[in-house]
Amino acid sequence: MSSGFGGAGLDLGGGSNIESMSKDEIIHQIRSQAALAGAQELISSISKHCFKMCVPAPGPSLGSSDEGCLGRCIDKYLAAWDAVSRTYVAHVQKQQP
């Protein structure tokens, strides 16, 4: 990726050169990258939270109770995240004219 404010050689990732992209393609690329970053952050948060909660003494393998706890924790975490996300989106949509 080239630096420079003139846009010469700017790369949005995935090998796409910004000069050859339409405005809609750029917006789509940015949204895709933001969604990917959000998903990676969610997975990281779930991993840290649930592992800390369900595996107090890590060993060479997970026991069946650890696996069950992790599964339930992930399900609850995703359900809570989904509820918060839906509420936030609804709130933002109400704020728009």
UniProtKB/TrEMBL annotation:
Keyword terms of this UniProt record: Chaperone, Disulfide bond, Membrane, Metal-binding, Mitochondrion, Mitochondrion inner membrane, Protein transport, Translocation, Transport, Zinc
Alphabetical list of Pfam families matching this protein: zf-Tim10_DDP (PF02953)
Domain annotation Tim10-like: ranges: 29-88
Gene Ontology biological process terms, A to Z: protein insertion into mitochondrial inner membrane; protein transport
Membrane topology reported for the UniProt record: Peripheral membrane protein
InterPro entries hit by this protein: Tim10-like, Tim10-like_dom_sf
Record-level GO cellular component terms: mitochondrial inner membrane; mitochondrial intermembrane space chaperone complex
Keyword Glycoprotein: no
GO MF terms, alphabetically ordered: metal ion binding
Localization per Swiss-Prot or TrEMBL: Mitochondrion inner membrane
Subunit text: Heterohexamer.
Domain commentary: The twin CX3C motif contains 4 conserved Cys residues that form 2 disulfide bonds in the mitochondrial intermembrane space.
Purpose: Mitochondrial intermembrane chaperone that participates in the import and insertion of some multi-pass transmembrane proteins into the mitochondrial inner membrane. Also required for the transfer of beta-barrel precursors from the TOM complex to the sorting and assembly machinery (SAM complex) of the outer membrane. Acts as a chaperone-like protein that protects the hydrophobic precursors from aggregation and guide them through the mitochondrial intermembrane space.
Family: Belongs to the small Tim family.
Protein name per its UniProtKB record: Mitochondrial import inner membrane translocase subunit
Organism (species): Coemansia javaensis
